[in-house]
Amino acid sequence: MNKQELLRQIDISPKQMEGLPEEIPGIAYDSRKVKPGDLFVCIPGYTSDGHRYIADAVKKGASCVMVQTGCAYETPQVPVVQVKDTRDALSAMSEHLFHDPSRKLLIIGVTGTNGKTTITYMLERVLLTAGKSPGRIGTISYKAGSHVYEAVNTTPESYELSRMFRQMLDEGNDSCVMEVSSHSLALHRVEHVEFDIGIFTNLTEDHLDFHPDFEAYFQAKKRLFSLVKKAGLINIDDPYGSRMYRELKEEGRRVFSCSVKDQQADYYARVLEKTDTYSQVCLYHQKQRLTEMRIPIPGSFSVYNGLCSFAAACEGGISPETAKEGIQSLPGVPGRFELVPNSRGVVVIVDYAHTPDALIKVLDTANEFKKGRLICVFGCGGDRDRKKRPMMGRAAGQRCDYAIITSDNPRTEDPEKIMKDVEEGITDTPCPYEMIQDRRQAIERAIGMYQKGDVILVAGKGHEDYQIIGTEKHHFDDKEVISQVLSQNG
Fold it and tell me: Do residue 130 and residue 264 come from a single domain?
């Protein structure tokens, strides 16, 4: 691509432009992926700094290098361009390189601590029901055309994101539903994506290993709505959602409130019935009754997910009846309050809940339909926000009849230390508990003590089929292990 076209929105002095090659065939931000002629963009990373790999990039054939002002680097024998923020520049250039693909797709972005994955799956069903061809990006996987890829991050780096949008267009997709993480917003991965619709679910304790404080976490989430061109949907029953809605309205943004508590909200859901398999709701828009809908996942949190999905679909031009049909046809979401089928009648549920708020919600839901005890197997990840560990213990202790604290993804931390951090929160609750580091043994213990009427919840990993121990991934699938244990003990 011509350098003028590639760099058209980036603040670069004419003098810097003069030194660059006229044609730049591609961009790379990983020195291992540089191809001859590429522009190598140095990104200050979460664990490493791209400025340290300039020499490697030049050896691979980089024709020029982009660096961030204020970062240290060794001057290479190729032209160097300095910019204020290399991540922002990478996002802008990636969109240009792939011919602005986000502007040619209907894109719905979902942000918040919990609920993002379920909403994207609901909206994917709605779009399919409406006759569209959606792609999907999120925690479980990336889907472009007929291809499904393993998700490395909830939201990919900007270059991969633009490339995936281009693949979606090339393979016949006309829309995309995507989870938008706070990391991606803070690190400018989506800075030049054009969103049509934005959704905010809630904000609770998470990712404070990355964000300096909770206010920074909130502001990162709020950033999405400055990138939305049509409408934002905000769950105002969440206190941070209420604040966000108020601030966005004051800024003149086109946002709509969603609520299960406030009948004055733009979109309101009145719960008619809740069972162990679904919730029946009546939906209103600005006090006008629209339709009744069955949300095929139990729990109050699923009502919010269904309401926000329905509202987003309506604001995206889809009829209420089509939105309803799509949501009602959802077969389930991998690892989200997922019942593990078995011939023994043992009720075992797997859920991705790995924050205090998410754990509270799934435990409350399980408590609504248990007939015996609620047994919970859970842990916390290593190298992540340590403050939430005792909060997780307290959440389980206040809602379970028996808890088993185990290992999750310890990463480079000592699993026993993580478990002790969790234990601090459970010791002052009435819940009996034990600590079993080996996750398989913990699951075996829970199933071994099961009695008719009990519910077992295995929380924290959901759809994941691995454990990260040290820096290596080891195969481990909660559902697979549960099925194996049940068949062995049957």
Answer: yes
pLDDT (mean) for 410-438: 97
Q: What is the DSSP string of 40-58?
A: EE--B-SSSBGGGGHHHHH
Q: What is the pLDDT of residues 101-148, one digit of tens each?
A: 999 999 999 999 999 999 999 999 999 999 999 999 999 999 999 999
Among candidate residues 221, 263, 229, the one with its CA nearest the CA of residue 245:
221
Helices (H) and strands (E) in the chain, counts: 16, 23
Is residue 333 situated within a structural domain? no
Q: Quick one: 313 and 345 in the same domain?
A: no
Mean pLDDT, to the nearest integer, of 92-99?
Answer: 95
Reply yes or no on whether the pLDDT at 207 is more than 60: no
Q: Are 220 and 186 in contact (CB under 8 A)?
A: yes
Judge whether 244 and 207 are in contact, CB under 8 Å: no
Q: How confident is the model at residue 319 (pLDDT cuts 50, 70, 90)?
A: very high
3-state secondary structure of 479: helix
Q: What is the pLDDT of residue 45?
A: 75
Q: 186: domain range? A: 101-328
List CB contacts of 472: < 8 A, sequence separation 6 or more.
none
**Do 128 and 254 belong to one domain?**
yes
Residues with Cβ within 8 Å of 252's Cβ and at least 6 positions away in sequence, in order, are none
* Residues facing 293 on adjacent strands: 281
The model's pTM = 0.91
302 and 441 fall within a common domain: no
299 and 202 housed in the same domain: yes
What is the per-residue pLDDT for 214? 86
**Do residue 69 and residue 199 come from a single domain?**
no
SS3 27: strand
Instruction: Give the pLDDT of residue 59.
Output: 97
- Which of 356, 368, 363, 426 has the alpha carbon at shortest distance from 397? 426
- 3-state SS record for 408-466: CCCECCCHHHHHHHHHHHHCCCCCCEEECCCHHHHHHHHHHCCCCCCEEEEECCCCCCE
- Residue 193 φ/ψ, nearest 5 degrees: -85, 140
Q: Which residues contact 250 (CB under 8 A, 6 or more apart)?
A: none
**Residue reference for tokens 């309803």:** 324
> Chain centroid to CA 56: how far?
33
Number of domains into which the chain is organized: 3
Residue 101 DSSP symbol: G
Q: What number of CA atoms fall less than 13 Å from residue 176's CA on the CB side?
A: 33
Clarify whether residues 79 and 114 are in a common domain.
no
